[in-house]
Write a structure and sequence with these properties.
The structure holds two protein chains of two kinds. Chain A has strands spanning about 5, 10-15, 20-30, 35-40, 45-50, 55, 65-75, 85-90, 100, 105. By secondary structure, chain A is mostly beta strands. In chain A, strands 2, 4, 5, 6, 8, 9 and 10 form a seven-stranded mixed beta sheet that branches. The model of chain A has no long low-confidence stretch (mean pLDDT about 95). Chain B is mostly beta strands. Chain B has strands at about 5-10, 10, 20-25, 35-40, 45-50, 55-60, 65-70, 75-80, 90-100, 105, 110-115. In chain B, strands 2, 4, 5, 6, 9, 10 and 11 form a seven-stranded mixed beta sheet that branches. A four-stranded antiparallel beta sheet of chain B has the order 1-3-8-7, with no helix packed on it. In chain B, strand 4 and strand 5 (about 45-50) form a beta hairpin. Chain B starts with a strand and ends with a strand. The relative contact order of chain B is 0.32. The model of chain B has no long low-confidence stretch (mean pLDDT about 95). The chains are: A mainly beta, B mainly beta. The interface of A and B includes residues 33, 98, 101 and 102 of A.
């Protein structure tokens, strides 16, 4: 099983700042099979990034994904009030499909 | 625009059977795999498994002995059974569409299932 480790656990930032979230895999993951989600309280997760770097439909361009192999990054260039949430990475390059433990982005 | 609507019992006793169904509206049913994912209160996401329109399944090894998924293509629905349940199965359960056998682009609204004696 591929374990995804997300860091930091919590990121405290002010609106307008840049957020950098990390997702490290215990084994190499093909870019095709790495995705990022945003989840707000009481809501289902929302797909942000697929294929490591491709924005899903309707996702603002302040969200970007990068990385390869075992190290992946989600960057939010300028935090908007609606961006404060929990973010998860997910892989399905190898079964079972797994999620990272999440990074909470909170208002500083 | 595809929509997923799910339902099922929300309160169970230990040793009972969890049963949830998800209906797919407004999109192709046969062209995708369909999954169940759960999230214990205050915790992260756990993939339970997937099924396609022909009933082919893949389950998470951590749950495979207790999980069964099924599909009803005449109604564009798929279902989840977990038995027997314990308190550790308390979670919000989501159904979702798996795209490209890679990621989830559409989700159900979630169902909180509580297991308590």
């Amino acid at each position: 099983e591929i374990v995804l480790t997300q860091s930091p656990g919590t990121l405290s930032l002010s609106p307008g700042k840049r957020a950098t979230l990390s997702c490290r895999a215990s084994q190499s993951v093909s870019n095709t099979y790495l995705a990022w989600y945003q989840q707000k309280p009481g809501q289902a997760p929302r797909l942000l990034i697929y294929g490591a770097s491709h924005r899903a439909t309707g996702i603002p361009d302040r969200f970007s994904g990068s990385g390869s192999g075992t190290d992946f990054t989600l960057t939010i260039s300028r935090l908007e009030p609606e961006d404060f949430a929990v973010y998860y990475c997910q892989q399905y390059g190898s079964s079972p499909l797994t999620f990272g433990g999440g990074t909470k982005v909170e208002i500083k | 625009q595809v929509q997923l609507q799910q339902w099922g019992a929300g309160l169970l006793k230990p040793s009972e059977t969890l049963s949830l169904t998800c209906a797919v509206y407004g999109g192709s049913f046969s062209g995708y795999y369909w999954s169940w994912i759960r999230q214990p209160p205050g915790k992260g996401l756990e993939w339970i498994g997937e099924i396609n329109h022909s009933g082919r399944t893949t389950y998470n090894p951590s749950l495979t002995s207790r999980v069964t998924m099924s599909v009803d293509t005449s109604k564009n629905q798929f279902s989840l059974r977990v038995t027997p349940v314990t308190a550790a199965d308390t979670a919000v359960y989501y159904c979702a569409r798996l795209v490209g056998v890679a990621n989830f682009d559409s989700w159900g609204q979630g169902t909180l299932v509580t297991v308590s004696s």
